[in-house]
Amino acid sequence: MHILVCIKQVPDMESKFKVNGEGNWYDGADLASRMNEYDEYAVEQAVQLKEQTGGDLTVLCIGPERVKETMKKALAMGCDRGIHVADDESFKKDPFSIASIIAEHARTKSYDMIFTGMQSQDRGSAQVGVLVAEILGIPCATTIVSFVFSNGKITVKRELEGGIRAVVNVPVSSLVTCQLGLNAPRYPTLPNIMKAKKKELLSIPVADLLNVSARQETKALFFPEKKGGGLILEGDITESADRLIKILKEKTAVLA
Amino acid sequence: MKTLLVAESREGKLQTGISDLIAFSKKVDAESAMFLVGSETDLPKFEGTLYLADSAKYGEYNPDVHKQLLLETIGRIEPDMVIFCHSSYGWDLAPRLAHALQAAQISEVVDIIDELPVVPVCNSKLRRKVSPNTHITVLTLQAGAFSLTDEPTVFPTIEKISTNATGKIEFTGYEYTEQGGVDLTKASVIVSAGRGIGKPENIAVVARLAKALRGEYGASRPVVDAEWAEHNRQVGTTGQTVSPKLYVACGISGAIQHLAGMKKSEFVVAINTDRDAPIGDIADVLVVADLKQFIPVLTEKIEAL
């Protein structure tokens, strides 16, 4: 099979965020980056499908030069080649623009299967995968927690609320968006990390693939008001434990 | 301003979130209509017109069919906004509709400020105010972000809708996760383990605190996904919704899906190294500490009481 997996580089969510000078995004300069967690499951499933069917697997990522580090992880996990869509302002692009860029790349490549994460950890729109499929006019199943390819047929399970899954058959030449827990993403081994350095990683300027206008824009990025106002205990742990027990005795009946 | 509110039904039963849609529509002072592929045996209460497609005819969720039914309804009433819940139904269907309408879609709206939708960024650590550039907008709402003070008491006027569209994907049935074993919904104390516990061995540390408090231990999604705990211990949207007297969140950052499952707890204690973790917003007490050091100390003290 001829397979595409789309990934995004995101900051570590534990980071201390700062709003940038323009007030429309966070300052990315000092933040540690990693592969969007949902995309790790997408890469793993794509690699497993390639191992099962043979063929080749392309990983695509949009962003500045530094996203190549994240792409190298995908290559070390088993992708065969990387397409880096070079864009220093990818953080400003709305889901429709991002999806259009990916679709423009995929249009001429006739992939048999496209994998994406179900959402990114930073923007979390959960739109890009579905929009790529709609633009390309191919079937799409979202939020999958199981993927089986057997006898030329793909069966996926979509995660719904309350512990229920919908079992859905999709034809080859579809797009699926991957939920956490779909599989166990592999850790790249040292030999595979070395091999990945030799794999093709092609950069394409975003202008070559972007031919639509944004449908929305960010007017402001800001910190939410802290509403909890709960008590914070820190410092010496023995002291914190004593204070917590006192509070639990006063405010709850559980230690009675 | 006119809104179309998209309700959801599964196996003939209405799903939650419909009152959130009505509350949002009231907040933006809009005239609203509702859309449902569902059954006349379980209708939502709503003052207005319900555009209803019979789920007996159209079956369970099929994206292409539901999209066509929505387009048919939108053609009739020409809304300015189409509003979904940010649920597995909403985030699957909304982008498909937005694409067909060439509309901006704004996902997981939590507020409206200066008439513009506000959405969370980076696990709710930040907020983003978004301006759509299109004449019609599709929104999905975060569960519980908008709530209604007075539930409607009347049933809607019904307009039937239909389509001949067929789907590109084939739904074959539902699968239900096995029940049995521990029932967290009955526990009066729950001590839950999150990603911050670091390794599976630390489940025992959390379980021991739960035992000392005469409760049960629970887990967040990443812990269950890693198979460090069973699915029936998972708290959150895709697991159990609980409301114990005391909920202790250990190494849980507080993703909205987790909060949705435990925010009705009477008293919440969070133990986390990250002072800014969103769990701190709903915790009555936040202990900023390494749980691997703090919990054993706390447990021993409680056991000695």
Q: Please report the number of helical segments of chain B.
A: 9
Radius of gyration of chain B: 22 Å
- Biggest interface between chains: A-B, 82 and 91 residues
Strand content of chain A: 25-35%
Summarize the helix and strand pattern of chain B as letters: EEEHEEHHEHEEEEEEEEHEHEHEHEH
CATH superfamily of the largest domain in chain B: HUPs
**Sequence stretches where pLDDT stays below 50 over 5 or more residues of chain A:** none
**Strands of chain A, count:** 13
- CATH top level label of chain A: Alpha Beta
Query: What percent of the residues of chain B sit in helical stretches (DSSP H or I)?
Result: 25-40%
**Under the CATH scheme, which architecture of the largest domain in chain B would be assigned?**
3-Layer(aba) Sandwich
The class by helix and strand makeup of chain B works out as: alpha/beta
Distance between the termini of chain B: 61 Å
Main sheet attributes: strand count, strand direction, barrel closure of chain A: 9 strands, mixed
Q: Please tell me the overall pLDDT of chain B.
A: 94
What is the number of independent domains of chain B? Answer: 2
- Tally of helical runs of chain A: 6
The gross shape of chain B turns out to be: elongated
The figure for the number of domains of chain A is: 1
Q: Biggest sheet of chain B, in brief?
A: 7 strands, parallel
The average pLDDT value of chain A, as a whole number, equals 95
